[in-house]
Amino acid sequence: QVQLVESGGGLVQAGDSLRLSCVASGGTFSNLAITWFRQAPGKERELVAAMNSVESTYYADSVKGRFTIARDNAKNTLYLQMNSLKPEDTAVYYCAARPLRVLVNPASYDYWGQGTQVTVSS
């Protein structure tokens, strides 16, 4: 059983940066694909960025060039560096994990963190 704990959210102004962290425990971290999803009020949960077990990365078009995903297998931690934040980035951000491959559908993920709120004011 894998447990995921996110941190790093907060209230920032447009143009600012935040770094989210997702710490995993209870599994073999290097074998996991870990994905950042976000969900804004009234909207569906959407993939933001992801990294599979061989460290290939995936980004939503809306965040390409602004967000960067990275993992530290020694610390069992996945990071999401978010730069040039926009009000439309406001959402609860979740990390989710599944074996090996990144999939777009949130229902394909076995493990979820509790979420961290990111609010970007204009």
Structure description:
- It is a single chain.
- The protein has 122 residues and is mostly beta strands.
- The protein is 0% helix and 52% strand.
- The protein is built from no helices and 11 strands.
- Strands 2, 4, 5, 6, 9, 10 and 11 form a 7-stranded mixed sheet that branches. A 4-stranded antiparallel sheet has the order 1-3-8-7, with no helix packed on it.
- A hairpin with a 6-residue loop joins β4 and β5.
Question: Which term fits the overall shape?
Answer: globular
- Which band does the percent of strand residues land in? over 45%
Q: Spell out the helices and strands N to C.
A: EEEEEEEEEEE
**Topology, number of strands:** 11
Number of helices: 0
The rounded distance between the terminal residues' Cα atoms is 40 Å
The main β sheet shows up as: 7 strands, mixed
Mean pLDDT: 95
Structural class: mainly beta
